[in-house]
Amino acid sequence: MIDVDIAVIGSGSGNSLVTDELADRRFAIIEGGDVFGGTCLNVGCIPTKMYVHVAEVATMVREGGRLGVDATLDRVRFTDVRDRVFAGRIDQIAAAGEVYRRDDESLELLRGHARFTGPRTLRVDLRDGGTEEVRAGQVVIATGSRASIPEEIAVAARREGITLHTSDTVMRLPEQPARMLVVGGGFIAAEMAHIFSAFGTRVTIAARGGALLRHLDDELVEVFTARAREQWDVRTSTTVTDLHRDEGGITATLSDGSHAEVDVVLVATGRAPSTSDLGLDVAGVDVHEDGRVVVDAHGRTTADGVWSLGDASSPFQLKHVANHEARVVAHNLAHPQDLQAFDHGSVPEAVFTHPQIATVGLTESQAVAAGVDVVTKVQKYGDTAYGWAMEDTTSVCKVVADRRTGRLVGGHLVGPEASTLVQPLIQMMAFDQPVSQMVRGQYWIHPALTEVVENALLGLDLNPVEDHIEYPHPD
Ligand SMILES: Cc1cc2nc3c(=O)[nH]c(=O)nc-3n(C[C@H](O)[C@H](O)[C@H](O)COP(=O)(O)OP(=O)(O)OC[C@H]3O[C@@H](n4cnc5c(N)ncnc54)[C@H](O)[C@@H]3O)c2cc1C
Ligand SMILES: NC(=O)c1ccc[n+]([C@@H]2O[C@H](COP(=O)([O-])OP(=O)(O)OC[C@H]3O[C@@H](n4cnc5c(N)ncnc54)[C@H](O)[C@@H]3O)[C@@H](O)[C@H]2O)c1
């Protein structure tokens, strides 16, 4: 039996709970996966963006001719990229992170699957064999999420002896596939389709919805889905009903009656919180219908002394949100009399595709539904100096504001550098800055691409400043 002050299950964002403020507490960090450090580092944000960057370079070469730069792409050396990313970088960081914790005598690192056996007591099935009991003053559930595979696809794959890939495995394929079926129409489907098609794989997407990335503002959905159709074989409003393996590869049958002949199937149909095998009922920890741990604004679960953060409990499966929640929970563990709350207002996100996407706040239809006196402006990149220099014809920045308050309620970009250009919009919303102040209270460099954002804001038909209704700033 190991007795600690704080037991953390999961070494992703949970690993950052060991802060200076908690230096006097004894921690146990329990990690059950093959590698240390969680999703973002090992199979998520970081390796995908290392692949995305390569995809961007390849795309730039391919598209240079449009601007008078004739270049040909010989090939992307998939296995070299893979080995540089994983063997050369990621795997070493993960291993070093594990050694750092193992060498730290002030904490216990346990490598194995944790499960509650009672209030704040855990049994860890160690990866090397055997079990360990852990009793803790406080427990933090930071177990993340895992790819969910629709049952009918799993059944067909099993019957045919087909290996289904998820984002966990597809970046480590032994060789680049010539043809790939991507099932799903969300973040991972879009980013992986971009990566593999830029690398030279022929990509077919089977998306259940009528468009890709449907949670976005309609304007972006339309632009992105149209651009996606130019790059990939996009089949919308369809699901995979069957898979067959033959000499030529894999034949997928779709619900619209069409077929796709491919070499690899990537399933990207969402991720479920990793909470089903934690014995949460024994611990008195309630979960939502979708499996997320129920937490209050401070990260407390329904069980005394048990906390949760990140994909295991958050409504957002995003690393910047998991990091924020970890900072809040770390503070709250150190200062139980002065609890901080999660800030889930205006959470931004970006999809690293071609074109790139970034968004914050409400879509136009959400703003209308929320009773906002909606005013919008759609600014084309091509109508600003740098966008014009790029000969851009499809990219836009759409801003959604409240006419009465003069405040932005949403910002949406699809186009080059979207994930960077969105930052002033995030800032405005976070600090409740009026559009008038943001747009005319500072210089905007000419002719930088940020003029897309400046012009979008300038184009909003807001009430005069003196008529703005002032609401107290939400602290
Ligand atoms: C392909 C992909 C790309 C992504 N790209 C981005 C991006 O660009 N930007 C962004 O913001 N977000 C991105 N995300 C989402 C982001 O990775 C997650 O939101 C984030 O990593 C969640 O962190 P976490 O700490 O909650 O969970 P994780 O990092 O998943 O950590 C949970 C850990 O708990 C361990 N664990 C689970 N159950 C147990 C148990 N019972 N016992 C012991 N250990 C256990 C797991 O092995 C895991 O290591 C991406 C995700 C994926 C899959
Ligand atoms: N750049 C980023 O920030 C980034 C990148 C990758 C992943 N992520 C995070 O990871 C999460 C998981 O990503 P994801 O793409 O797996 O999930 P997602 O929720 O973004 O998309 C899932 C998609 O699969 C579709 N789908 C579900 N069941 C289906 C079926 N049976 N057949 C066909 N389509 C089906 C859904 O309609 C949806 O389009 C994201 O929600 C996001 O929060 C973030």
UniProtKB/TrEMBL annotation:
Its cofactor is FAD. The keyword Disulfide bond applies. Residues 347-456 form the Pyridine nucleotide-disulphide oxidoreductase dimerisation domain. This is Mycothione reductase. Keywords: Disulfide bond, FAD, Flavoprotein, NAD, Oxidoreductase, Redox-active center. Belongs to the class-I pyridine nucleotide-disulfide oxidoreductase family. Its EC number is 1.8.1.15. The keyword Oxidoreductase applies.
